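Let's practice the habit of predicting before peeking. Look at the sequence and jot down your guess about where helices and strands might fall. Then scroll down.
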Amino acid sequence: MSLLRLDLIGHSGFALECAECVLVFDLYLDPVSVMERVIGLGKPVVFFSSHAHSDHWNPGWLDYKVPTACYIVDDSCDSPAVRRRIDPQRQRFTAVRPYQTLDPVGLFGPEDAARFMPGIQWVRTVGSTDMGVSFLLCVDEKLVFHAGDLNDWYWVDESTPEELASYELAFRRELRNVCDAMDGLSPRGLDLAMFPVDSRLGEHATRGARLMAVRLAPVLLAPMHLCGDMTLPDRLASELDDSDITATEVLRLSEPGQHHLFTNEIR
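Done guessing? Here is the structure:
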């Protein structure tokens, strides 16, 4: 099994252990020291940051004593001060924008690609309905998606009906862009999606995730960006069951440090 373990670091932060590397997404705070375990694995670590909101981007990443680290970040996170902190002996840094495809060999050359991004075939960036990018990547022949702040931000108490319709249209367009980025890659859909289920949206907290599950058909869905409501993964799972969306299993990760061990559920 190429995907080994998914740890919730907290909020939208996850560590995904693969056969040859660990992928870390939108690390913000690490209250139970998940990164200590990750670094102790001795594998190269590839850090992704979807945008510069303070709950998704922490430049303290750059100070972790990882023997081999690669940083792929939205260009809102980039700055001369950040670049000056990169150690060229053990780190690589790439800033991205929406709708790009990164080929590790084309980006770094074959030797550095094997050293800094082992097992990763490609990374594609898609847009957001807030700021920055979302990430679609292929690692060990598995399709993984981290949405960043891409969501159906259905702020019903502070928006007009026309604004709500506009927000949902923008969200559906970005889902179409993800579908286009997946076109011809895998008839089974995503293997793993990490997606916002934000309690501040009230009764509409699961709205975007439910539509995403219909359109992108992830085998496993890890809710994130819960903003304090630890019941939301259970609620989302119940709503998918009630809607007969049986192809997607919701991972019940709500507390930092909880993890999922992959077995044979990835088709």
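How did you do? The radius of gyration is 18 Å.
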